[in-house]
Design a protein that fits this description.
It is built from 5 helices and 17 strands. By secondary structure, it is α+β, with helices and mostly antiparallel strands.
Length: 282
């Protein structure tokens, strides 16, 4: 074998070794450099501990959707739950064993916030004034990271309610508003009555608007005089919304859950069933 071939084989050998070491190191780093050792796909329980109010508890059901169990029993805001889950996977450059620390120095003896994923706890300490990073404690190690989750963990439970007024699996069979009434008969035909009767096209438009209706925010209920009710039913369930404001926005409340949905006031006529007929082409 000539010297050139020997050199090429040597270079190839060292290249293979270097690539192997690189990917082994990268794989090892990925396993060791996250805030928790949790597999995000196996997390099915989240609890936000609240010292001044009831804890906020979520569970993941078979369809991978998150539901709030406490203080409200309702579909959760999936995007915000995913943001919470992302906390478990935050990359960590350096960690410190808590046995070597005085936790009070980092406000981790009395944490600013506390969240549990399955059986793994994450505690939020204070902000480091030099770099604006936050001290977190998880799995017996303290880390200092750029944390965007603290405001969400500190938020009111209503912030985690799904913005959709109706669940995807809510099959409407009846709607009653102060303006109109609809019901589906046993033959699958819709009937309209009330002050504002709807034709077939308007009925379908009305139903579709309700299926897609989303609030821009959900808040804890503020007691106000009811301006009317909207009742929506399936074959086995009925939801009654109280109309408590129409200006500057439309507010629909659910008193039994102590929450209210805030919508743009332009949705008032749409959700009450006041649908203007299409104008003929000029």
């Amino acid at each position: 074998m000539n010297s050139r071939n020997l050199l090429n084989l040597s270079l190839l050998f060292f290249l293979v070794i270097a690539v192997t070491i690189y990917f082994y190191s990268k794989d090892t780093d990925n396993k060791k450099s996250l805030l928790t050792s949790l597999d995000i796909n196996n997390i099915n329980y989240i609890k936000i501990h609240k010292s001044d109010a009831g804890d906020i508890i979520f569970i993941k059901k078979d369809n991978n959707n998150w539901y709030m169990q406490s203080p409200y029993k309702i579909h959760a805001h999936q995007f915000r739950l995913n943001s919470l889950l992302g906390l478990t996977q935050i990359p960590v450059n350096k960690s410190y064993e808590i046995d070597e620390l005085i936790l009070a120095d980092y406000a981790l003896d009395k944490p600013r916030a506390h969240i549990t994923f399955n059986n793994t706890d994450v505690f939020f300490g204070k902000i480091n004034s030099l770099n604006n990073k936050r001290y977190l404690l998880a799995e017996n190690k303290m880390v200092l990271i750029n944390d965007q989750t603290y405001p969400l963990v500190s938020a009111h439970a209503s912030s985690f309610v799904n913005l959709s007024l109706l669940n995807e699996d809510f099959i409407i069979t009846k709607i009653e508003t102060p303006e109109t009434s609809l019901h589906l008969d046993k033959d699958g035909l819709w009937h309209s009555s009330g002050n504002n009767r709807l034709n077939a096209d308007q009925i379908q438009s009305f139903l579709e608007h309700w299926k897609l209706a989303r609030a821009f925010a959900v808040h804890e209920l503020v007691n106000k005089k009811s301006l009317g009710e909207i009742t929506i039913s399936t074959d086995s369930k009925t939801i009654t919304f109280n109309i408590t404001s129409t200006d500057p926005w439309l507010i629909l409340s659910l008193p039994e859950l102590n929450i209210e949905y805030h919508l743009d006031k332009s949705m008032k006529n749409i959700l009450l069933g006041v649908i203007k007929p299409d104008l003929p082409d000029a």
